[in-house]
Amino acid sequence: MSSLRAFVFPALLTALPAAPVLAAPPPSNLAEEARAVDTELVGCGTRSSLSSWTDPKRGIGCGRDVVVRRLNEIAARTGGRLQVIVDKYETSNQRTGNVPVHMENVYAVLAGTDPLRRKTAYVMSGHLDSRASDVMDAKSDAPGADDDASGVIVSILSAQAMAAKPGGYRATLVFAAVAGEEQGLLGSRRMKEWLAQQGYQVGGMITDDIVGATNGSKDRRPRVFSEGGPDGVDSPGRQMARRLDELAGPQRVRLVFRRDRFGRGGDHMPFAEAGLPALRVTEPLEVYDHQHQDVRMEKGVQYGDLIQYMDFPFVTEVAALDQLLLGELAAAPAPPKAAVLSGAVTPSAKITIEAEDDPERQGFELLQRETTDARWHVLRKVDRPGQVVLENTSTDNEYFAVRSVGKNGHRSFAVPCVAAPAPPPTAAP
Ligand SMILES: [Zn+2]
Asked: Which of 123, 194, 270, 423 could share a disulfide with 205, CB 3.0–4.6 Å?
């Protein structure tokens, strides 16, 4: 399966110079490692955010211990390049009974190697907590083998793979397991604050939530959800999703142009709502008897989020895709600061690229797509920031965007060309 993938390229990429591939297909023992972590997390009985943080045998504190121990082992094996942080905080909302409760997030930080880029963080996150049928039930078993031990496993496997990369990445990578998702995205909101307090700008964020089972689906591609922007068409998260589609190919990911599953939400939302590039990855086909359900047999039907439904090779595939995308973005130059489209009511479109200096940047690529197309095409290369005139090209009929290209061949995601802000109206007499 993985050797076949190496020979299948999406048509779009045939027009581009090949970028170096960062993430190798996962060796098969990774699936066994994923199963071992899942078994340990499920072994904590419940990981309700309202369960014990101090009991080493049962509760979310037991889950935290599993994650911290695994990440510390990885840090030791990779020469201490990975810093493991337990972030303790108090938080409240309706689903904590409106009283402040103790919670903890775990972050493994792989610092960027380039002073220009190291304050930009690319984040992948799963949620450590699980839930029973009643979200306030801290006592019943809530194995959460899939929701969301699977996302936590993706963070751990990715920390392991990426911390071992010789030479590291220009920008910083953060591998997270956050609490409080089921209580109202509390841990994710906290992580966003924490990143800002540490002086990081979020370059991109992925939440891997329910990425553990394929449930007999013929289509084994993970679904990648990204929201529309203010015009209903584009958002930074969607540009990031497109970059993944370009890198991995549409045969490995299924883009869904929605913020999340219909009527549902996840840990990417606090980031997306702040205008940051964020997306959600979820398995191809969910089975609701296995989600948010007490473990029980009813009329011959097994309910509950149990390890027997997991597909561990699929978990490793999600980890490989995350690594492919965030590895590319963390190795690439920053996306352009802005791309301004002008030239309306003239024969030629004009695009002005604004970007910070970066000696590692080779230049930019101008992208275009039909307004009805999902994917970008490369129009031309541009060497430096400033204005480009597209002779005899209407501003009206296509979308345009710009992305940065590194001397190392890695590319940022696209920044869509938008109109220059209108000048302030002159004061009425
Ligand atoms: Zn979840």
From this structure: 123
